[in-house]
Design goal:
Layout: E1 2-6, H1 16-27, H2 47-57, E2 65-70, H3 72-83, E3 87-93, H4 99-118, E4 120-125, E5 130-135, H5 137-146, E6 156-161, H6 170-178, E7 182-187, H7 197-208
Parallel strand pairs: 1-2, 2-3, 3-6, 6-7
Antiparallel strand pairs: 4-5
């Protein structure tokens, strides 16, 4: 089994969850790939580029793959499972289903218009801990993927905080209707799930049959 972790929006390979899971996998003698989804170019990143990066990473792979994704990375993991049959298990942490619609609501028509006119939007990047620019092409490209419906049925373990201020946990519950093989675990936590990592790991170990 090959294990890949996909970080969230405006994050990176060195995220708190990414570091935690890599250390836990190392402790049991397993590798965890954590690609930099923006390829060190956050300003010009798009979902299409991120999806292509992971597909290229798995090109020629004949092993089964477990995709672990956090927030936007969780949505990407579910999309990749639609296209890559080697992906046989998913672990999703507060998956950002409906990402584009929520961003549109947050910015509003005026904010979207300004983003389009200016060409870039200032976004705080948690990986670099500074504000960076994000090109409007990200939004235009994301709209295309928002129309895709995740329907593949495969074992999936989904964690979501009931106090999530960014992604309603109801979206993960809704995912169960499309993938009845999924299990959704609701936690007394916010979007980050940072204070739940030990319990999440224990459930992952059982789900993935890890040593």
């Amino acid at each position: 089994m090959r294990y890949i972790y996909l970080h969230g929006f405006a994050s990176g390979r060195g995220s708190t969850k990414g570091r935690y899971f890599r250390r836990k996998f190392q402790e049991i003698g397993k590798d965890l790939d954590i690609p930099d989804l923006t390829e060190n170019d956050f300003e010009h990143t798009t979902l299409s580029r991120q999806l292509s990066l992971v597909k290229h990473l798995l090109k020629g792979c004949t092993e089964d793959v477990c995709m672990i994704g956090s927030s936007l990375g969780g949505w990407l993991a579910a999309l990749l499972a639609e296209d890559i049959q080697q992906v046989c298990r998913l672990v999703l942490l507060a998956p950002a289903f409906g990402f584009v619609g929520r961003q549109s609501q947050i910015l509003g028509p005026a904010g979207l218009k300004e983003w389009k006119q200016r060409g870039v939007l200032p976004v705080y990047h948690y990986g670099t801990r500074r504000t960076q620019q994000l090109h409007y092409a990200f939004y235009e490209d994301a709209l295309k993927h928002e129309q895709r419906v995740v329907r593949r049925r495969l074992p999936a373990l989904v964690f979501h905080g009931i106090f999530d201020e960014s992604v309603p946990y109801s979206l993960s519950v809704e995912y169960l209707k499309r993938n009845p093989q999924a299990r959704v675990v609701l936690l007394a936590a916010d979007h980050s799930l940072i204070d739940q990592l030990e319990g999440i790991w224990d459930m992952m170990v059982a789900f993935l049959h890890l040593p």
